Hints:
Elements: H1 22-30, H2 34-38, H3 55-62, E1 75-83, E2 87-94, E3 99-106, H4 117-128, E4 139-143, E5 153-159, E6 163-164, H5 165-170, H6 178-197, E7 200-201, E8 210-212, E9 218-220, E10 227-228, H7 231-234, H8 254-257, H9 266-281, H10 291-302, H11 332-336, H12 341-350, H13 361-365, H14 383-395
Antiparallel strand pairs: 1-2, 2-3, 3-5, 4-5, 6-8, 7-10, 8-9
Helix pairs in contact: 6-9, 9-12
Bound molecules: adenosine-5'-diphosphate and magnesium ion (MG).
InterPro entries: CDK, Kinase-like_dom_sf, Prot_kinase_dom, Protein_kinase_ATP_BS, Ser/Thr_kinase_AS
Family: Belongs to the protein kinase superfamily. CMGC Ser/Thr protein kinase family. CDC2/CDKX subfamily.
GO molecular function: ATP binding; cyclin-dependent protein serine/threonine kinase activity; RNA polymerase II CTD heptapeptide repeat kinase activity
Amino acid sequence: MKRPPAPAGRHSPAPLSLPPTDVQAKEVKKSESPEKELNPRALITRRPHRPLRSREAEKDAYGRVFAGCGMQADYEVTTKLGEGTFGEVHKALQMSTGRLVALKRILMHNEKEGMPVTALREIKILKALKHPHVVPLVDMFVVRSTHGEGPASVFMVFPYMDHDLAGLLENERVQLQPSHIKLYMKQLLEGTEYMHRNNIVHRDMKAANLLINNEGVLQIADFGLARAFDPRVGQGLLDRKYTNCVVTRWYRPPELLLGARQYGSEIDLWGIGCVLGEMFVRHPILPGSSDLDQLDRIWQLCGTPNQQTWPNFDGLPGCEGVKRFTQYNRQIGKHYHTWGKELISIMEQLLSCNPRERITATEALDHEWFWTEPFPADPKKCVHCLLQQIIQDEVC
Ligand code: ADP
Ligand code: MG
């Protein structure tokens, strides 16, 4: 389809027939040269562009210099790593640096509407965040379609990470000791605490969005559903509504399943609780087959809420028309007793149905579980060797 002509922007030259502006007209009157009076264009002198700041001054002021986008030619694609709702991910070699990267292609279903808003949010948030446990966006590039028709593709470039947590947990040969789980949880909570302190809520916490490399470093990835939030909304101090159609069902907290639209960072902590349980039992702990089944599984593990445990929960839209949920008692202690009372305690606080009582990332980092033996593993000593051994075996 033929593109409409670009609107006359600030880069278009002024049409030759334009009359002089008031200022130009005054200048012409002042001028003594009769020739200039007849030719107002002669007054427009072209000045050389001088940047306001040198690159060094720019670096001092912003901590970085404007680099622009990369080029497709700099990347040699090898294998496909994954495909999700919003894009597909390939492993590639960045030739200019020799490092391995992951290319995430943003699917453009309808170019007329431009970049999907989810991708714009993801880019904006990733560019703003900088933390050792949040995946960094290292480059972006655009690929035009072959004949200039059809949508262009936009790629985001991330450092390549050897595993995602879901894949690791599916691999029976990977043995995770409680000290390894503590190491991953510590990093996950540190990254989350940083996001929440900066008023970003991830809204898709799950094992598949947590990347881990062979050095035992964990990074939170996939900011496709993330958004900035106002902390007053979750506290009920500001009347603003967000969508509740977020978070993959198995990791979705009960308040979202019940239709809550005023929430904050606490929704991520529920997902983190599900991930923690999953690391111990090696499979998703609440694999609901429908939203109703999801709620029923939550009540079976965490107890059906009542006015004492969760005041006014029945005022949420999802409770409308429901006479009574099946009554269950809380069973978290029973499920996790093998791993000690500290684990039970942190699980109880992460999987609190009442969002107001759910532990925050900052509080969780200070929980007894992290301060009782076995302590978080030292990545230099064990996880590193453990994962590398597996990779070597697989390659052989
Ligand atoms: P989606 O929105 O499609 O879920 P993700 O960013 O979660 O996109 O990426 C999908 C999958 O691709 C991940 O679950 C992971 O397996 C893989 N992946 C994503 N980023 C990387 C990376 N930097 N290194 C290695 N694998 C990655
Ligand atoms: Mg994902």
